[in-house]
Design goal:
Blueprint (H helix, E strand, L loop, with lengths): L2 H26 L4 E4 L2 H24 L14 H25 L8 E3 L16 H16 L3 H40 L9
Helix pairs in contact: 1-3, 2-5, 3-4, 4-5
The structure holds S-adenosyl-L-homocysteine.
Length: 196
């Protein structure tokens, strides 16, 4: 395993990520939006996560894993193998959460026509499996692209998206589904069962 091979694993993960997302993005357009919260703010958060998970690592990869070069770390194959495990894990969570969420998915905070509260499948265990997937994606990036600046950029990007979104999203769910959501939330963890 070399840094180049590890970078290719990171690229492969992103390609599969897009293949999973694309049909949902297309289908979402067909379902009218009946409630939307903090749209501009949420779009900014998505843009910030794209910088951290896409532009910064992409720039580093395209410059021959050289910019910022000073932040490159000595390459560890063992760490990169752990990164591959993280890629498989994030893709699994991403696939499962899209499948379970179905037409209720949106990139920002929205309620769609015929929105239903999903509490089964992976949502039976955690309330935010797609955000679990984003955190794992940032971890995979840090483990595969062994440059501390690039690694940190993914974690910070996801962190900003997550912490500025999750409370607003839960408020939207509570306003829409009331006691049913309160009940569901009391029985599930946000990201890690029994812990958080
Ligand atoms: N936070 C979830 C969903 C991310 S997609 C996750 O991490 O898996 C964001 C959209 O999903 C929000 O606009 C919200 O309307 C919707 N949503 C979040 N949780 C939901 C649930 N349990 N059932 C139905 N829709 C949900």
């Amino acid at each position: 395993m070399t840094q180049f091979a590890a970078t290719m694993c990171w690229v492969a993960g992103l390609v599969i990520w897009f293949i999973i997302r694309l049909p949902h993005q297309r289908r979402a357009r067909k379902h009218a939006i009946v409630d939307s919260r903090n749209r501009g703010g949420q779009q900014t958060l998505v843009a910030i996560s794209v910088v951290g998970l896409g532009l910064v690592p992409g720039f580093w990869a395209l410059t021959g894993m050289g910019a910022p070069r000073g932040a490159n770390l000595p390459f560890s194959p063992a760490v990169a193998y752990a990164g591959i495990v993280a890629v498989i894990a994030y893709l699994w969570f991403f696939y499962r959460s899209h499948k379970d969420l179905g037409h209720n998915w949106s990139a920002t905070l929205e309620i769609r026509a015929k929105h239903t509260l999903v509490t089964s499948g992976v949502y039976h265990y955690v309330r935010h499996p797609m955000y679990v997937s984003f955190w794992l994606m940032a971890i995979a990036q840090a483990l595969l692209l062994q440059n501390w600046f690039v690694g940190l950029s993914g974690i910070v990007g996801v962190g900003i998206l997550y912490f500025f979104r999750v409370k607003k999203e839960e408020k939207l769910m509570l306003d829409t589904f009331g006691g049913v959501y309160r009940d569901y939330a009391s029985k599930t963890a946000r990201l890690i069962p029994y812990i958080y």
